[in-house]
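Archive record
______________

***
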Amino acid sequence: MNGETLLIHLDPKQGYNKVFDLGEYGMKLTAFGVIRLARGTAYQAATGEFEVALVLLGGKCAVKGDGFDFAEVGGRKNVFDGKPHTVYLPRRTAYEITALTDVDLAYNASPATRDTAKPCVITPEMTRELVIGRDNFTRKATVMLDEKFDSEHFYIGEGMIPSGNWSGYPPHRHDVDNPPDEIDMEETYFYRFDPVQGFGFQRVYTPDGKIEEAYAVRNNDTVAIAEGYHPLCGAPGYQMYYLWTMTGKVNRGLISAKDPQHGWVK
């Protein structure tokens, strides 16, 4: 690791808040940020040579551009208040976001080499919910963009972790394209907590010891995971939320390899 942390802190301000750009933290297919807008303000940008997914963390907004006009997107007050709306934008698309209320959006970008889906909104009704694990490693996942969606790289969802529970357990990785056992996808975790002063812990490690990291994660923290096993847990008394954005160069899906030391835990 050469002393480079994979944990990025953020105190979001008005406008676009960079978390990391393409190429930083070993992330070859992902850029990530948070767009925060006060009611009545607007943000203009263009996707360029990237596909972009905007996940509504809280609030309502309008999103428009050439050939599309989504007059009202969002609605949940925060990430603990229901399922998300997600706006997908292909490469070479100019867009404008206007805040109908105070609004927070997670900005996910990945380089695109082809035309993908047209601009669209993935509503809460279009998402897929999974319950994963058991006992104190039970968690819920909401999948917004999966391998059936016409994206070049994205597989995006949300995790909701009950008080004191683990997630990403048994420890898993997705570093190598070896279907059906494992596929290669880098991943971004973005955290929020209820109540807001909550915290959790994230471990990232590789079998050869090249990466051996453990972080206390708090509200608005991000962990960039280009490789390695990556289990996490939340502190008792708090709900832990994380947005997970996976990007695969060749394949996409929830296909991972378990750490053989802990894979006996079912």
The mean pLDDT is 96. The longest strand covers residues 185-194. The CA atoms of residues 47 and 93 lie 5 Å apart. DSSP finds no helices and 23 strands in the chain.
